[in-house]
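Hi there,

I know you've been waiting on this one. I reran it after we fixed the sequence typo, so this is the corrected version. Both the input and the resulting structure follow.
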Amino acid sequence: MGIQKYIIRLSDKWTILLNNTLFIINRFLFLISFIAFCTIIYDIGFLYGTCRESLMTPYYIFIIKIVAGLTFLRILFFFKKYRRFSLFIDFFVLLVLLLYVFNDQLLHLLHSQYFFWISYLHNKFVIFFVLSLLFVIEISKSSFHLLKLKFNPFALFAGSFLFIIFIGTGLLLLPNSTTNGIRFIDAFFTSTSAVCVTGLTVVDTASQFTPIGKGIILTLIQIGGLGVMTFTSLFGFLFKGGSFQNHIFLKDFSNSDKLSEVFKSLLKIIIVTFSIEIIGSIFIYYSLHNDLFYSNFEKIKFSVFHSVSAFCNAGFSTMTNSLYDASVRYNYSLQGIIGFLIIFGGIGFPIIFNFYNYVKVNTKNRILHIFKIKQFESVPRLININTKIVMLTTIILLCAGTILFFILEYNNTLKEHNFTGKIIVSFFNSITPRTAGFNNVDISQFLYPTFMLFLLLMWIGGSPGSTAGGIKTTTFAVAVMNVLSLVRGKDRVECYKREISNDSIRRAFSVIFVSILVLGISIFLLTIFEKDKNLSALVFESFSAFGTVGLSMGITPDLSDAGKIIITFLMFFGRVGMIILIMALISRVSTLKYRYPTEGISIN
């Protein structure tokens, strides 16, 4: 028995030693990957394209050897503790790093034609990708520790956007990001506009930013469109696994109904996003004329940039005049593709998943019925009330917006287009003011009724759970239904044989009130700091920023620093959401266990 106790005690100490060793290795890997990532940023931002970049090679070799050694130790001693996907990635990272270090020796030993691909791995950009991937994985796993702390989830959500905005600002300030340098306030404005998927610009994206700068903007758009927590949480689940506390914290942000489906929901969001963006890039590519580009690679870059910008409802374009540029102004197929990408991005992931589930279940039942495996079963209420309200509101806004724009601007901004073009341009302009920001007409020439129409559409915005801004379609719909119920003398709001909860009604009117208050204060401040600007242009700019739309009457580059700060805050408020921001700043009261006597108040 004494020997047995000694063996058990020894085994426990060995387990503790291994766990501590794994902890130390993981911390060192995080530190080294962070240093490597900073080195990459310094290389690309300061040295890229100069003769000095070759001086960085010894540093990369040194970092690679440390990372390879730590990764090898982690695999060797902790093989059984690995998740399958995490083990695969570690093997991949180790293999690429070793092939990079011993590239010359391997090519000397392996003369076969089947090993020619090894030479392609001796490329600095391959190492950039691998080391950056390692850093993202390590920081994603570390981010799960934040969820163990007693953070306000809404504060963490809003803080994640602020964190990426400041990181983006720093990256845009790098010498190689711009052609002639950029001021801090302009970099901060541009970073906020990209992360908050707005599209307002104080400097010309096409001419002032280098390919590196445009790549940074595109990355910020993608991260901002999906949300920082979506990326980090997905990587955290893949490589570390999630605790019960992690699942509870991320349930609402992933729009999942069950705790067990949090990871699947995050994965589906990423897959759907990239799938639609890839398909959109292909369609955009074939809608463009080859004469517009110097090379096929430039055409691909244009297609990818505009597909991501459209689906994320960002509105950024690599053309100075956006889609109003003379080269694409009459390319109606391009405008139609971008329009549908905007709709998919602004309709919301919950709606897309609900339709996917509806199609999947009905298709499966029909196939089983056709092959006589079992009788066809009609599953009731697969399309939930949220989806029905969003779809109905979206269709009404699209149809009404198209018809009104067509009538109002027929002999104004639409007069240069043929009849088919007028319809497509009108349809596009019923989509883009609801959060996209691409313009294919001269906005400064709008008639006042069109101006008011755009303010309404920008204020409403897209749908919940999407990349869109504004008060959201469901908020507008619930408010309208509540007014109609009051007019009809009803004591509750009903829709599709369901009663809308009082909580939803209260939240809807809270969002409306706060949005009007914030817009009113912002416009008031802008009139103080921008005395030389037209009031209508300032109002348009404010609604565009709050709705994360990105349309402008041309005053954005001429704003003062104070005006830029006001618009920056509006973009942030519009993307994060005023209710979430208020909940992040104010501690929430626990459920009240008492009620006062009810008494009516005179309203009118």
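Quick highlight: The CA atoms of residues 47 and 482 lie 60 Å apart.

Best,
R. S.
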